[in-house]
Design brief:
- It is a single chain.
- The protein is mainly alpha-helical.
- It folds into two domains: about 20-85, Fe,Mn superoxide dismutase (SOD) domain (Helix Hairpins); about 100-200, Iron/manganese superoxide dismutase, C-terminal domain (minor pseudopilin epsh fold), CATH 3.55.40.20.
- Helix content is about 50%, strand content about 10%.
- The protein has eight helices and three strands; from the N terminus they run αααααβββααα.
- The chain has helices at about 20-45, 55-60, 65-85, 100-110, 110-125, 170-175, 175-185, 190-200, and strands at about 130-135, 140-145, 155-165.
- Strands 2-1-3 form a three-stranded antiparallel β-sheet.
- Strand 1 and strand 2 form a beta hairpin.
């Protein structure tokens, strides 16, 4: 089946005042839809047109060469945004607990050090891209990716991604990317991130 944009698990305005309703409407309904339309068009008629997007992105070499850039960009956009919507929730934020909290402390020293590293990576991502908390097979790490590249294509498991494309924040924050990333911490659904972490280490 062709890919489709998953519905938001909350109302467009549910993340205010941190992320505004208009940004969510345009980001979800327009930008994500465009990625879906373009990756569906790229894969139509190929052996991968019904393949799960995770499997496609894990091995981009299986994609016909003349389709690969379109699939990398737009399939990545679809997958990244699907993770992004589920990484946020109203009345969320705070700090993780349990095994994930211990892993963060072990990898980064403290939760505040983790926050600083994730923010620094996002602020310093040149142009468009993402800042990620990943499991790299041995433990937690923070990496940046350009455009719509995803850690899954490099053998890493994405646990949390901060979208630092300007379309994610410019209506409300203009050029204040650090302020946007700071606000993002108020909407992180740590229960979902914990679920991904447990899946990664299972």
């Amino acid at each position: 089946m062709p890919y489709s944009v998953p519905p938001l698990p909350y109302a467009y305005e549910a993340l205010e005042p941190h992320i505004d309703k208009q940004t969510m409407e345009i980001h979800h309904d327009k930008h994500h839809q465009a990625y879906v339309d373009k990756v569906n068009a790229a894969l139509a008629g190929t052996s991968l047109e019904n393949a799960a997007i995770e499997g496609v992105l894990k091995d981009l070499n299986q994609v016909p060469e003349d389709k690969r850039t379109a699939v990398r960009n737009n399939g990545g956009g679809h997958y990244n945004h699907s993770l992004f919507w589920e990484s946020m929730a109203p009345n969320a934020g705070g700090t993780p607990d349990g095994a994930l909290a211990q892993a963060i402390d072990s990898a980064f020293g403290s939760f505040s050090d983790f926050q600083a590293k994730l923010k620094e990576t996002g602020v310093n991502q040149f142009g468009s891209g993402w800042s990620w908390l990943v499991h790299d097979g041995s433990g937690l790490a923070i990496i940046g990716t350009p455009n719509q590249d995803n850690p899954i294509s490099n053998g890493k498991t994405p646990l949390l991604g901060v979208d630092v494309w300007e379309h994610a924040y410019y209506l409300k924050y203009q050029n204040r990317r650090p302020e946007y990333i700071g606000a993002f911490f108020n909407v992180i659904d740590w229960n979902e991130v914990e679920r991904r972490y447990q899946e990664a280490i299972a």
